[in-house]
TrEMBL record:
Protein species of origin: Rosa chinensis (China rose)
Top-rank taxon, per record: Eukaryota
Signal peptide range: 1-18
Annotated compartments: Secreted, Cell wall; Secreted, Extracellular space, Apoplast
A single GO BP: auxin-activated signaling pathway
GO MF assignments: manganese ion binding
Domain Cupin type-1: 62-201
One Pfam family of this chain: Cupin_1
Binding residues for oxalate: H103, E108
Gene3D superfamilies: Jelly Rolls
Protein name: Germin-like protein
InterPro entries: Cupin_1, Germin, Germin_Mn-BS, RmlC-like_jellyroll, RmlC_Cupin_sf
């Protein structure tokens, strides 16, 4: 009887091991869903699916924020699909700012590679602001779903930082775009934010809303 149980236990272990999937390289030809992209067949996967060179190039900071975010999420980097991780490169020119935003699907760890930032996030329970000046070599964590921001305070020095996320699809929603680039009616923005209609109209013109 003991031998029978040992054999059965070994069979279960070997079956479980066989069922393990090492990776799930994204199949961009198939539709994606809440769980991510479908997996490519292993025989079609190459080493290039696990290497991404996009973060070696500086982003274009010639915009209103003087900032650029270059993502390496599952949509750009097929090898991270299903692994629970992703990254991005953050470039801020002098005076640049990453405005208030959230990542609804991930925690973030930001590593400053060059320059000086004032960075912070706002807690959801007491609206406490956690604010810190961080320099090259420093890291700061931003909990999932909380409003956070970064501002280049290094005078004429550009900032280079790298963000790591706890999801291959962290998501991104920027407050300015959500309010002033969407079809959110001006009257309702005024009622819900207490901003004046002239200022809302000005910001909608800045951010390109057609509403």
């Amino acid at each position: 009887m003991a031998v029978f149980f040992i054999l059965m236990f070994s069979l279960i272990l070997s079956s479980s091991y066989a069922a393990v999937q090492d990776f799930c390289v994204a199949d961009y030809r198939a539709p994606s869903g809440p769980a991510g992209y479908s997996c490519r067949r292993p025989e079609t996967v190459t080493v290039n699916d696990f290497v991404y060179s996009g973060l070696g190039v500086a982003g274009n900071t010639s915009n209103i924020f003087r900032a650029a975010n270059t993502p390496a999420s599952a949509a750009e980097f097929p090898g991270v699909n299903g692994l629970g991780i992703s990254m991005s490169r953050v470039d801020l020119a002098a005076g640049g700012v990453v405005p208030l935003h959230i990542h609804p699907g991930a925690n973030e760890v930001l590593l400053v590679a060059q320059g000086t930032l004032v960075a912070g996030f706002i807690s959801s329970d007491r609206n406490t602001v956690y604010l810190k000046t961080i320099n090259s070599g420093d890291i700061m964590v931003f909990p999932q779903g909380l409003l956070h921001f970064q501002v280049n305070v290094g005078n004429a020095t550009p900032v280079l930082a790298f963000a790591s996320y706890s999801s291959p699809r962290p998501g991104l929603q920027i407050v300015d775009y959500a309010l002033f680039q969407s079809n959110f009616p001006t009257q309702l923005i005024a009622r819900t934010t207490f901003l004046g209609i002239p200022e809302i109209s000005r910001l909608k013109a800045v951010f390109g809303s057609t509403n």
